């Protein structure tokens, strides 16, 4: 198992890609801190599923775009499961708004959740690792929209492309401490966020036709790649951005 003996924090782990990553990490031997904006039946289900795999797990709610919630998340994570080895910055939201109609609040809501949260969580995590003299790994979750233009995402797409630049810069500054930082850009993945696409007989075939493998991906398929990047098997991989999209970008 790639992550045996490791402790991971996964933000936005109540559903979708975050849940897929959390459960994939448990399959690979990691104990998991499940973070989401709210603690509810979704997070409880993820908790029970991870515990059923014989792994330790805890749910810690909080808004990771707020500094006080970020600090509390890591305080409670360390207290509950011990020193954390891996951080997955997955929490994110998407809204579709025409550029001309985009408001300040809509811009701030998306960029704060998608980008600011990843910076703050990474900073809080790295500070603790450096203070304790411990190595670690960060996996940031971006989006295929870092490379593809889709209407109504003038706020969303920049927040995801910026994650790639942030990944490179953070990796350059913390590499000497033994902390690796990488980014995954998922393509069309079967999650609640894009259910409207999956259920549309007009939109789905058009999108799938652009994907070389001819299908949407699954959250567990992002989870397996994240597990590799977080593991010692990727010990010489840092500052990289990988498109896990079934060949959408390259087609």
Kindly summarize this structure in a few lines.
With 251 residues, the chain is an alpha/beta fold. It contains eight helices and seven strands; from the N terminus they run βαβαβαβαβαβαααβ. The two termini are 34 Å apart.
Overview of the molecule:
Helix 1 (16-27) packs across helix 8 (219-230), helix 3 (67-81) packs parallel to helix 4 and helix 4 runs parallel beside helix 5 (156-174). This protein has a seven-stranded parallel sheet, sandwiched between helices. It is an alpha/beta fold and 251 residues long. The model has no long low-confidence stretch (mean pLDDT 96). The chain has a single domain, classed as Rossmann fold (3-Layer(aba) Sandwich). The protein has helices at residues 16-27, 41-52, 67-81, 104-132, 156-174, 195-198, 203-208, 219-230, and strands at residues 7-10, 31-36, 57-61, 86-89, 136-141, 179-186, 241-244.
């Amino acid at each position: 198992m790639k992550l045996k003996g490791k402790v991971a924090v996964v933000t936005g782990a109540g559903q979708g890609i975050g849940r897929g990553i959390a459960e994939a990490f448990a399959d690979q031997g990691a104990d998991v801190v499940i973070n989401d904006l709210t603690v509810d039946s979704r997070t409880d289900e993820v908790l029970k599923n991870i515990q059923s795999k014989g792994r330790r797990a805890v749910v810690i709610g909080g808004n990771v775009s707020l500094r006080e919630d970020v600090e509390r998340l890591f305080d409670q994570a360390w207290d509950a499961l011990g020193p954390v080895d891996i951080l997955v910055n997955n929490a994110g939201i998407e809204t579709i708004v025409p550029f001309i109609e985009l408001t300040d609040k809509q811009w701030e809501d998306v960029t704060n959740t998608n980008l600011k949260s990843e910076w703050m969580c990474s900073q809080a995590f790295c500070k603790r690792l450096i203070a304790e003299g411990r190595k670690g790994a960060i996996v940031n979750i971006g989006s295929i929209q870092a490379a593809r233009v889709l209407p109504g995402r003038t706020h969303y797409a920049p927040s995801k492309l910026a994650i790639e630049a942030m990944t490179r810069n953070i990796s350059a500054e913390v590499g000497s401490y033994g902390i690796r930082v990488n980014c995954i850009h998922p393509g069309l993945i079967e999650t609640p966020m894009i259910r409207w696409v999956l259920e549309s007989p007009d939109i789905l075939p058009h999108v799938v036709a652009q994907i070389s493998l001819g299908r949407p991906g699954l959250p567990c398929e992002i989870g397996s790649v994240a597990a590799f990047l977080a593991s010692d098997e990727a010990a010489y991989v840092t500052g990289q951005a990988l498109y896990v999209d079934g060949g959408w970008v390259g087609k």
